[in-house]
Amino acid sequence: MKKLINAAENVVPEFLGGFVRAHGDLVRLSSSGKALLRAGAPGPKVALISGGGSGHEPLHGGYVGYGMLDGACPGEVFTSPTPDQICEAAREASGGRGVLFLVKNYTGDVLNFELAAELLAAEGLDVAQVVMDDDVAVTNSAFTAGRRGVGGTVLAEKIAGALAEQGGSLADVRWACEDVKRHVRSMGMALTSCTVPAVGKPTFDLPEDAMEFGVGIHGERGRQRLPLECAAEIVARMASAVVDDLPFLPGDEVGVLLNGMGGTPLMELYLVYRELGAFLDHRGIQIGRQLVGNYITSLDMQGFSLTLLKLDARRKALWDFPVHTPALRWGR
Amino acid sequence: MKKLINAAENVVPEFLGGFVRAHGDLVRLSSSGKALLRAGAPGPKVALISGGGSGHEPLHGGYVGYGMLDGACPGEVFTSPTPDQICEAAREASGGRGVLFLVKNYTGDVLNFELAAELLAAEGLDVAQVVMDDDVAVTNSAFTAGRRGVGGTVLAEKIAGALAEQGGSLADVRWACEDVKRHVRSMGMALTSCTVPAVGKPTFDLPEDAMEFGVGIHGERGRQRLPLECAAEIVARMASAVVDDLPFLPGDEVGVLLNGMGGTPLMELYLVYRELGAFLDHRGIQIGRQLVGNYITSLDMQGFSLTLLKLDARRKALWDFPVHTPALRWGR
Fold this sequence. Notes:
Two copies of one chain form a homodimer.
Chain A: H1 11-22, E1 27-29, E2 36-38, E3 47-54, E4 71-77, H2 83-93, E5 99-104, H3 107-122, E6 127-132, H4 152-165, H5 170-183, E7 184-190, E8 210-213, E9 224-227, H6 231-245, E10 253-260, H7 266-283, E11 286-293, E12 303-310, H8 313-320, E13 323-324, E14 329-330
Parallel strand pairs in A: 3-4, 3-5, 5-6, 10-11
Antiparallel strand pairs in A: 1-2, 2-4, 7-8, 7-12, 8-9, 10-12, 13-14
């Protein structure tokens, strides 16, 4: 295993130390040092909090800041955050207008956010949750009952975060998340495995002539292991699966998140984006907004995921709302 | 070789097609389709143009836009742009106040930009050049007479671009580039090789227990091949080489570019940043500005490079000036 680390057991706190040093104008550590919060005192707004295993950076810490998250709970690598950690983030991020947990659908995450919500409710905090499950690849998987939560989470954080910033109530912000959830679908593929530092070897084996179609963000098995294809064929396969699931229809306008898994050259991602544009043109689907880059990664995995969100005027306006976080910034 | 491509010979035009589709609000193709220009007609300003082999994205195309470059000339992967391509970019980006070429020191790049400058001068265009050579690793190398140009180029593009946007003359903007050149130093390291699509196999072999200290952005040999160390040791080795070269002295304020080589997880880069902060604290050097992420890559190489720029009030103000490009954005 080749990693830029000191000791595997210290990777997360050391990464967090560097992260808050680099972005101290935007983020700070919670009192125990285990959660990331916006710099400064909480404002009088709904606190939007997400979290999950580390190793998917910039998710979620990279989205803490104006117009997106108020707090992020990074677990150990590919490991759920603890209920204590989630409670602390909620208490310290709360501005008195309620807390919304945005949870990716993995069994441990759902359980721990649920437990935290119960504990916080008992303390009198107004807490709601939305569980994202946008990955069309498989119905159930190694760590999931139901579909997995992936790239749609980034878009839910953006859109719900914008509404929370505008003063939306807890019910409004929760509704905006559920609205994204209803209109977003994703799928991923891998050329190579990732390697978890504490494990020290690749999570799965993938022969030199094969790809994992429908891979999960922890390297979970997807729909099929297939012979490696050219970019146009891969895009047709991936985009068909995503488009046909909602389904996205001719005349629809979509927001695209074309996401690198962490080890994919940006040159290749843009080449894939060209193929995706041609595919959607052919289907009569219009790209209204787009993000191309590394937004929800799987350590050093090579591959990409595709997320499509159906746009309407409301979702588009919230997409466009200013944002200022370590990983996403415009309009400020 | 595992790549998200169609055919190796079409990688660059297909990547460019996706790039301008994703960022059509900011960039457009030149008339032949071989260079990237700012969207819209050239303004009455010095045109700042850079270029070099593809495979280092987001460099240089990702820095075309307000406050940075007016044009970028992407060659084939790891291959210099042609004089024709450079001439076309200069002619079509020129706003009548002169053209500055920002060139990384590689023999082919220097030769072709020089030839283009002569051709353009014969046409009556006012052209100047600055050759960046900030890599302290080696004196000469496979493709270089003298030191190689690496991450310092990104900072020169930012700072000279800001001055050009403010209406600086060709002499002023050239001076700002040379001022950065005098005050910036860099060094890179690799854990793994990169793989050029047209070659189909890794550029170099690096055993599982070794790292290349001082690697070039095309995988050129560095100073030494060393046993793999922990992050703190690697940072001490890298940062010492950079700090001692200028030298950066106690009391100096620096701008840091901590750059991933393309295949490095962001989690590890932030962990490295923490070590770098501790190193610079110990040396009495203050971090005034920082960028942590993938800014000048080497395809899928794992590793990082470190660039330090000595700051003064003038360079800091130009660093802070608004920028709006595909890869760097703030203040607008």
